[in-house]
Amino acid sequence: QVQLVESGGGLVQPGGSLRLSCVASGSIFRIYAMAWYRQTPGKQRELVAAITTDGTTNYADSVKGRFTISRDNAKNTVYLQMNSLKPEDTAVYYCNAAINTRYSHYWGQGTQVTVSS
Fold it and tell me: How far apart are CA 18 and CA 57, in angstroms?
């Protein structure tokens, strides 16, 4: 059994910051790529940022320069630091990780981020 649990979402004013965390637990031997996705009602889930085991990162154009993804392999945790938040960043943010094999992907339950004045 593997579980991903996100935390850190909430309500923030435009221009503000939030830091999301996602902890993986359970029968884990190795974690490969980790990523953050987001989804708004009526739209497909989209990739926000991803990070490989060696720290190589990839970002959606819409968040480049504002968001930073990082991971702590010792803690089985991935983070998403979100700065200069905009109303269009409002979404449910989901953590995703490839665990034990490169093709076994797991999802967290999601955490709501709302950017509004």
Answer: 19
Q: Tell me whether strands 10-12 and 111-115 are parallel, antiparallel or unpaired.
A: parallel
Q: What is the mean pLDDT of each run of 10 residues along the chain (117 residues)?
A: 96 98 96 97 96 96 98 96 98 97 95 97
Three-state secondary structure of 16-75: CCEEEEEEEEECCCCEEEEEEEEECCCCCCEEEEEECCCCCEEECHHHCCCEEEEEEHHH
**pLDDT of 69:** 98
DSSP conformational letter for 13 = -
